[in-house]
Design goal:
Elements (H helix, E strand, L loop, with lengths): L18 H14 L10 H9 L15 E6 L4 E7 L6 E6 L13 H11 L1 E6 L11 H21 L4 E6 L1 H17 L4 E7 L9 H4 L10 H11 L23 E8 L3 H13 L4 E10 L8 H18 L1
Parallel strand pairs: 3-4, 3-5, 5-6, 6-7, 7-8
Antiparallel strand pairs: 1-2, 2-4
Helix pairs in contact: 4-5
């Protein structure tokens, strides 16, 4: 992985956005008009709509490969979904997105099964507690519990202690928080890689997050602020355990940061990748012209390109 970050300014120009991506974004905007924004109804209703397939991503498809398990922590039992291929070269701790309020581990079944089968890694996906019913620090506590279990049990459970961590959006944020907790609370630096997909790392809001006013595209600023308010009180926003952009980032594993140019969390990835590198770690920044928040979860060429690069990153870590 390169030791320097290289950012091509041409990637941010409108001309860099492919016709396929433009067409996808236009269709997504039209679809979003038919779905209530997360900040306009109770989280329980949005969750119920998602489970019923009434969301922008459509019906949930479960994997027959997924095995539900429970990880027993000192203070809390944490449900996980586990995918184990015939050959295991590494173990991927997956943390789902959803603004700390929405999302479940089973929503990522299809992608996690593909990672397990194609890359020969066991996947452990955390079904952490959600705000506002269980606000900070419940979610990161659950992720830490599973990470600590893997640090002790990965080899005996799966035959490999080559560990990777990652997720998208809130999952990327929680992945970094988990790495920092494992380093600082347990003296553990055994994760070999971090797959960080359009995460949020500054709860005071980076410029792109604070000024994303287009209500037609995913995650406008008012929705970002609403998610943040459900998760943690304002007096904790600059706490490194909440906003890891403010943390000491030394001693962390190589990371791939993935983000699109039309994502309100663009600056979060730009800033965190720079700080990651400045702290003496390895970082790669993958920027996708016209990519909106959540783009890797759809079936179209830009998402395929990003997911192929993510797969190659994971493959390099475990091979």
């Amino acid at each position: 992985m390169p030791g320097t970050l290289s950012i091509d300014g041409d990637l941010f120009k409108e001309a860099a956005i492919s016709a396929d991506t433009i067409a996808f974004n236009r269709q997504l905007v039209e679809t979003l008009k038919t779905i209530p924004a997360a900040n306009t109804q109770p989280p329980s209703q949005t969750r119920a709509d998602r489970e019923a397939g009434r969301s922008v991503t459509g019906p949930i498809v479960l994997s027959d490969m997924a095995i539900p398990r429970v990880i027993h922590g000192q203070t809390q039992d944490v449900p996980v979904r586990v995918f184990v291929p015939d050959e295991v070269k590494g173990v991927y701790l997956h943390i789902h997105g959803g603004g700390w309020v929405l999302g479940r581990a089973h929503h990522a079944d299809q992608r996690n099964e593909a990672i397990a089968r194609n890359l020969h890694v066991a996947v452990v996906s955390v079904d952490y507690r959600l705000a506002p019913e269980d606000p900070y620090p419940a979610g990161p506590d659950d992720c830490e519990t599973v990470a600590f279990w893997l640090a002790e049990r990965a080899r005996s459970e799966f035959g490999s202690d080559r560990l990777i961590i990652g997720g998208d959006s809130a999952g990327a944020h929680l992945s970094v928080v988990t790495l920092l907790r494992m380093r600082d609370r347990h003296g553990f630096r055994g994760f070999a890689g971090a797959n960080l997909i359009y995460g949020m790392y500054d709860f005071t809001l980076t410029p792109s997050a604070a000024n994303f006013g287009d209500p037609g595209l995913p995650l406008p600023t008012p929705v970002i602020r609403w998610f943040v308010e459900q998760y943690v009180p304002a007096d904790r926003y600059r706490d490194p355990d909440v906003s890891p952009l403010f943390a000491d980032l030394s001693g962390l594993p190589p990371a791939l940061f993935t983000v699109g140019t039309l994502d309100p969390l663009l600056d979060d990835s730009l800033f965190m990748a720079s700080r990651w590198l400045a702290a003496g770690n390895q970082a790669e920044l993958a920027i996708y012209p016209g990519g909106v928040h959540g783009f890797v979860g759809y079936a179209y060429p830009l998402a395929d390109q990003a997911n192929q690069r993510i797969d190659e990153f994971i493959r390099q870590i475990v091979d």
